[in-house]
Design goal:
single chain, alpha/beta, TIM Barrel, eight-stranded parallel sheet, 12 helices, globular
Length: about 300
Amino acid sequence: MPDTKPRSVEIIEVAPRDGLQNEKAMVSTADKISLVERSFAAGFRHVEAVSFAHPKHVPQMADAEAVMAGLAGRYADRNLIGLALNARGADRAVAAKCTQINYVVSASEGFARRNQNASTADLIAGAKDVAAIARAAGIPMSISVTTCFGCPFDGEVPVERVMEVVEALLPYDPFDIGFADTIGCGVPSQVTDMLARAKKLSSTVKWRCHFHDTRNTGIANAIAAVEAGVDFLDASTGGVGGCPFAPAATGNVAAEDLVYAFNRMGIETGLDIDTIIDTARWLAGVLGKPVPSALLRAGVFPARAA
């Protein structure tokens, strides 16, 4: 029988945004720019570089325009993604020369209220304005649907609810829709089911998954997503990350840990694992604390020759 297993997957680096946003120690603009530069050097083609959230709510991202000023125009063949929670954020992303806007809609009402001070219906309606801004600027809009697998305030989030949200967003013609396991509670069977249902809703939208490793299911969920035909995976160098509005949520699945697993499985990522590990080590120094990276602790196998 022919081998029908996926042979490649595209990983989006989210450490500069989702990775840093929850850090209490302020990271300098220069170090944020360096993190993006190092990510591109490792082979990432897509980097979520900044967030245009209100600095009162996410102070780590207050220098978004300054970060983009140090990057815009230097990487014609790479994608600099800016997170926007509303039309004002989308306008800022366009002005800062982001090449893609990522909009956020929560699948659960409790998280929508605490994260964006709006209902899920309000957020779905807001996608229309953000889509119009992106379209006028000639750049794609992606949409991240948060708390797809569970909510810290509402508990279980039925997959039917997530699909209802996705169906409501499809008319805005997003480039991709991402399923985010915001608090790291999902398991592989849920991932497989969610992607199978999503693919029945649209054959043109790209599908993305965003996993946190709070309960050590991130790698397994990512592998399940790839086997289910996901187009993109979000990951964070060093496994850093978390959400200021999700109690006890820990870091994103580590990019280097994913690349290690996929390398061993024969799944191509186009990424240089040694460069990512070096960046994770550098990032730990910037943050002044260890980062939750298995590869940084244990190294690759077989071990490299000295």
